[in-house]
Design goal:
Layout: H1 3-23, H2 32-52, H3 55-64, H4 77-100, H5 102-108, H6 139-143, H7 148-161, H8 183-189, H9 207-212, H10 237-254, H11 259-264
Length: 273
């Protein structure tokens, strides 16, 4: 389902040109090599998604939706708005847990490997998508009666919205930032600074971060430093894609008796000696 990108493509292209212009004559060069890595990863993800077909949609539609508790009018704007809010809530917890559960982090960490934040890096993602367990966070919405097709459509809109917030070319946006996720909020989310780490998990909104204590504002006193908490040995696409997975399985082999802790506790967890 690629239709949302058709609507955002023209303004996104203009923003990209502006983003490139902000690098001209500056201290930093535009990260073309890193963008190339992102394009390789995005191509791999798209290929895997097409080969896997509609696995997540099949699970939701055939194994969950028949047992729904309610029926919703999918053509109602009120339904669409409620689903958007529900998807945002589910996405917040999925995203937050992707930083706090190592199995999920191994996939999500790919998105945090860029050392500069530019629009292209919104596409820097692992290749497994929701096929490694993320779909579980959205199952309750289907049980409540949200049609899987509508859920996927709204989720796509959520992801497309997030494209434009992956940039440091735009300033803070005033009162808009009280409610919505913005480039300033997302810069903080991508920071490796200890002050900023573990914050701003929202997709389109920032309200759940404010409600659940994970909001952190961008500060002029401490500029954002991008990149993973553990630096990668190189910028090879294969390394970017597999670095955390290889570390995870290495720890599993080294401590098989603590497999559950290694898989499902926080990244960096180690059993007591």
């Amino acid at each position: 389902m690629e239709w949302p990108y058709l609507y955002i493509a023209p303004p996104l292209f203009v923003l990209w040109i502006y983003e490139i212009a902000t690098y001209r004559g500056g201290v930093r060069a535009y990260p073309w090599t890193d963008v190339g890595v992102t394009i390789v990863l995005a191509t791999l993800r798209n290929t895997v998604s097409r080969l896997a077909g509609g696995t997540a949609l099949y699970v939701l539609g055939n194994l969950v939706y028949p047992y729904r508790w309610f029926d919703w009018d999918s053509n109602s704007w009120a339904t669409w708005f409620a689903v958007w809010f529900g998807v945002e809530f589910a996405y917040y917890w999925f995203h937050r847990m992707s930083h706090q559960i190592r199995w999920l982090w191994a996939e999500h960490s790919v998105h945090h490997t860029a050392t500069q934040l530019v629009l292209w890096h919104s596409l820097r993602l692992g290749i497994l998508g929701n096929y490694h367990g993320g779909v579980l966070f959205f199952m309750p919405l289907v049980l409540l009666g949200v049609a899987p097709e509508l859920l996927v459509e709204v989720f796509m809109v959520n992801l497309v919205y997030q494209t434009w917030i992956h940039t440091d070319a735009l300033p803070r946006l005033g009162p808009f930032e009280w409610v919505f996720n913005t480039p300033a909020h997302h810069r903080v989310h991508h920071a490796s600074n200890r002050r900023y780490w573990g914050s701003n998990f929202g997709g389109t909104l920032i309200v759940f971060d404010r409600c659940f204590g994970t909001f952190q504002a961008e500060s002029d006193e401490e500029p954002v430093v991008y990149g993973p908490p553990d630096p990668l040995p190189d910028r090879n696409p294969w390394t970017v894609l597999t670095f955390e997975w290889r570390r995870l399985f290495s720890d599993l082999l080294a401590n098989p008796r603590h497999a559950l802790g290694t898989l499902f506790r926080a990244p960096g967890w180690r059993p007591e000696p």
